[in-house]
Each structure stands twice: as C-alpha cells, then as structure tokens.
Amino acid sequence: MTRYNVHIYREMKLRFDGIEAGSPEAAANIARDGLTEDADDMEPCDGETFSALVDVVGDDEFTQSVTIDFESERLRKAASELLEALQTLAEQTDEDCPAEYRTRHFTDALEHARAVIAAVVTERRPA
Questions:
Q1: Which of 1, 20, 45, 48 could form a disulfide with 13, with the two C-beta atoms 3.0–4.6 Å apart?
Q2: Buried b / exposed e along 41-65 (16+ C-beta atoms within 10 A)
Q3: How far separated are the first and last CA of the chain, in Å rounded?
Q4: What is the value of pTM for the model shown?
Q5: Is the distance from CB of 70 to CB of 19 less than 8 angstroms?
Q6: What span, in angstroms and rounded, lies between the C-alpha atoms of 105 and 110?
C-alpha cells in the first residue's frame, strides 16, 4: 500500500476583536483580509470540509500530488457559472415569450430565478 500525506482544507472560525469600520460590511471585509495569525481567537467549527491535497510520501517533487474537491467545493466552484447561466436565461425570458410557455410554474420559476439573482448581486456589492 502507498503512504500519503493529506492536507485537509476545512472551514474554521476566526474572531477579530475591536475592528473600527463605517459599517458591518466594511468590518467584515477588514477581517476577511486579516491574517490568520492576527485573529484574536481561532477555533474549529462544524463547518464544511472543502478539499484535500494528497501527496505521496517520499515524492519530494510533488509530481504525484492530487487535489480532491469534495461536494461543497464542487458546488462553490459551479456557483458563478450557474449564476451566469441563470442571468442569461432570465434576461432572454420576457413577456414576449409565447403564451403556451408562460404557465404558472414557468412564471414562478422565473420570479424565483430573478429573486436569487437579486440576492446574489446585492451581496456582491462592495461595502
């Protein structure tokens, strides 16, 4: 059997105390950009495990290293492409759509898509 060194990339909770900022969003951005070692407290949490970097023991050139993305990381990586596709679909779908396609389910789905887009776009605005 092969021996491996495995590096797990997992969510953790960092606390930065006393950040002065003009808004909660600005404070969050300052903390986000802070160094891990500058955190006032660090603790694991029951969050997501995103990926693993797996190295073969003795492969000092790391030619056999592999990154394994777990489900949460695959979803995170797909999110921007899915949002873009959803935006394109919503932009191309309007009241000119033939009546036979404008069912209640279609209208509900389109409204839901537009609400998701609006929520994401609002969250992306810089503080």
A1: 45
A2: eeeeeeeeebbbeebeeeeeeeeee
A3: 52
A4: 0.60
A5: no
A6: 8
